Amino acid sequence: MRTHTSLLLRLGDFLIFNTIPPFMPARSENSINGRIRHYWGGSTLSVVIMILVVAGGLILPGGPGLKGETQMAMKIESEAFQDGEAIPRPFTCEGQDESPPLAWSGVPADARSLVLIVDDPDAPDPKAPKMTWVHWVLFNLPAEDAGLAQSVAARDLPAGTGEGLNDWQRTGYGGPCPPIGRHRYFHKLYALDTRLEGLGHPTKAQVEAAMQGHILARAELVGTYAKGQ
Q1: Reported pTM
Q2: What is the per-residue pLDDT for 153?
Q3: Which of 46, 102, 112, 117 has the fewest CB atoms in 10 Å of its CB?
Q4: What pLDDT, on the 0 to 100 scale, is given for residue 2?
């Protein structure tokens, strides 16, 4: 990544210095930006930035904490529901309250562990949300694994997987159980460059704090649910 970035910077220098005609007047002898703006009206700098982005393979961070991987590279999905669609009743408090099957792909080759967080930002009422309710927290999932089976129990989790506390103050999955309205449930997967050690049964906030600066990629799957659907 460091070599790649260096090449991009050299390309930027080349483009800047070779798109400024030698006869162009400069506002300041030491101000390249000033000369560009004076002659091109600022357009050259924008073009250079866009070329660098394209040449760099769109290496833009996907959000706070990411270390340069693209957010779209990793994917999480479920055979039980599509992204943005309703979560079937068996996976909610009105059904068997079992965890849905999840599958993921595109995990970075240098990832050492995965974190899975499922939460609802619409609690208690999506028309006037006041908190994010945490439904499931798993960490230190093996990076080489490709998903979780339906209704996975603690004893069936991959070796070494840690369980955090949900907002019922217990470990494990707690399905959608919205008191009012249709809520959204975010299934968020993070690939980390490390394992999270010494956490015990942490809260979501503690897991998020521990993984800051270690996130290589992330992906999310959103399902919805309203009671009685």
Answers
A1: 0.71
A2: 94
A3: 46
A4: 41
Neighbours of 135 (CB within 10 A): 23
**CATH hierarchy code of domain 71-225:** 3.90.280.10
Q: Where are the domains of the chain?
A: 2-55, 71-225
Give the pLDDT confidence of 176-189 residue by residue, as tens digits: 999 999 999 999 99
Q: Where are the alpha helices (DSSP H) in the chain?
A: 2-18, 32-40, 43-55, 204-211
Structure tokens at 9: 């910077």
Given 3-state DSSP classes, what are the helix, strand and coil percentages for the chain, each rounded to the nearest 5?
25, 25, 50
Residue position matching structure tokens 């999932």: 141
Kindly tell me if the per-residue pLDDT of 1 is higher than 50.
Answer: no
Give yes or no for a contact between 183 and 225, defined as CB atoms under 8 angstroms apart.
Answer: yes
From CA 112, how far away is CA 220, in angstroms rounded? Answer: 19
Query: What would the mean pLDDT of 195-215 be, rounded to a whole number?
Result: 97
Return the beta strands (E) in the chain as ranges: 75-77, 102-105, 113-123, 131-142, 147-148, 162-163, 183-192, 215-225
Tokens of 44: 């050259």
DSSP H/E element including 67: none
End-to-end alpha carbon distance in the chain? 48
Residue 134 near residue 184, CB atoms below 8 Å: no
